[in-house]
Specification:
By secondary structure, the chain is α/β, with parallel strands linked by helices. Helices cover 39% and strands 25% of the residues. It has seven helices and ten strands. The strands form three sheets. The protein has a six-stranded mixed β-sheet, with helices on both faces. A two-stranded antiparallel sheet has the order 1-4. A two-stranded antiparallel sheet has the order 2-3. The two termini are 24 Å apart.
Amino acid sequence: MKKRLIELLCTKSFKYSKEPIFKLASGRMSQFYINCKPVILDPEGIYIVGHLVFNEIRNSECTGVGGLTFGADPISVATSFVSYLEKKPIKAFSIRKEKKDHGMIKWVEGDMSVGEKVVIIEDVVTTGGSTIKAIQRAKEQGLDVIQVVTLVDRQEGGIENINQHVKNISTIVTRDELMSWITKKSLNN
């Protein structure tokens, strides 16, 4: 499944340039652009991602999986769906970018209770900033963050930054694995 995920990411989500032409959310320019949404919103992609992420957390004690909306939402839902099929149900939740200011004022949406052990999901990690924000908001809501799973690590220091907040971190695919696929593909053409 991982090989197919790498192929899908390389054909739908990953762009590379010898010169840094891609502007990142931080404002910094990069040679790499990764937008996982075309893959995590694709039927085959969501199937693969749900299984791969569930396999990363299958033996954990978590009862919930989620992250900052919107990047984590499809991954969390797919993982939750697979968990039910595998007879180890794990709930999905979503962390808002802006705190809800009416009704039940909170960061986290979903059927989560204070003290539950959760896994934070991220689609792409660069600096780790959005993942750390998700960790902090989950903790503020009373959740116990025991693990982080990222779909793609850009290998730019983000995992090390996240590791200052959560020790158990898993990466499904690295930028080097994507570049390796691109390189092999170009050599075969």
